[in-house]
Specification:
The protein is mainly α. The protein is 88% helix and 0% strand. The chain contains one helix and no strands. It has one helix spanning 2-16. The chain is rod-shaped.
Length: 17
């Protein structure tokens, strides 16, 4: 799913801290 991929791509930097 494209939206999920985009969502994760935006979340990773926040989760990675």
């Amino acid at each position: 799913v494209d939206w999920l991929n985009k969502f994760l791509s935006n979340m990773w930097p926040y989760l990675d801290k």
